[in-house]
Amino acid sequence: MTATTTSHASTSTNHPAALVRPDGGPCRVLVVDDEASLSELLSMALRYEGCEVRSAGDGAGAVRAAREFRPDVVVLDIMLPDMDGLAVLGRLRREIPQVPVLFLTAKDSLEDRIAGLTAGGDDYVTKPFSLEEVVARLRGLVRRSGAAQAARGGSVLAVGDLRLDEDSHEVVRGTREVHLTATEFELLRYLMRNPRRVLSKAQILDRVWSYDFGGQANVVELYISYLRRKLESGIGMPPMIHTRRGAGYLIKPAE
């Protein structure tokens, strides 16, 4: 953490709505970083946003805290003293399978970002960053992860042999249950609410990612590839998600 980052970490005078769960209760955030000053700064800012915050300085502490605290979202440094963030993520997923995870990293190469997302992380920010950016990303993650629970009537979406339960967050292809991250779930949900309709990358970014992603539309390609692997090639099922070059993506029953 640099002094430059700290100087960017002021909260906005135009304070937005508090970061809350879909049911209106305070959002529980677990902050995992071995740099005490950064952890304290993030914790203070998140409490200012109305969150309940627990912090941990290493991977083992993060897993213990997750087990006790049951966070709604996790802010996770990718470099920790006892294990790397990707290993911690795996353990967190075993404790709380659907919890959204925002990676903090000093690395900004595309390969490092893809590694974190491929491992199951839902989003990332690179250091130095502003607290406003972290809060905006967390607000998006909480919104996406709570979308199913907040859906009216707990409806079930169906396209061919694929079913998505908006209330329980369960996804089933044929007879096989498919486990998705919060962002993958919201992307699939958007596709399934628009069967046979071509959705552009811009439409998907606007609907699934509620903030400006810096024009990196390749994140859509990345997540489409994740869904295809989990719903199709990874379980030996015929394709449902199709690319229309220059136009976008659509989902339809397998032929």
Automatic annotation (TrEMBL):
Residues 1-20 are annotated as: Disordered. Residues 154-253 form the OmpR/PhoB-type domain. Gene3D superfamilies: 3.40.50.2300, 6.10.250.690, Winged helix-like DNA-binding domain superfamily/Winged helix DNA-binding domain (1.10.10.10). It comes from the Bacteria. SUPFAM superfamilies: CheY-like (SSF52172). Pfam families: Response_reg, Trans_reg_C. Residues 154-253 bind DNA. CDD domains: REC_OmpR_MtPhoP-like, trans_reg_C. It comes from Streptomyces avidinii. Residues 1-13 have a biased composition (Low complexity). InterPro entries: CheY-like_superfamily, OmpR/PhoB-type_DNA-bd, Sig_transdc_resp-reg_receiver, WalR-like, WH-like_DNA-bd_sf. The modification 4-aspartylphosphate is found at D77. Keywords: DNA-binding, Phosphoprotein. The lineage of its organism: Bacteria, Bacillati, Actinomycetota, Actinomycetes, Kitasatosporales. Residues 28-142 form the Response regulatory domain. PANTHER family: REGULATOR OF RPOS, TRANSCRIPTIONAL REGULATORY PROTEIN TCRX-RELATED. This is Two-component system OmpR family response regulator.
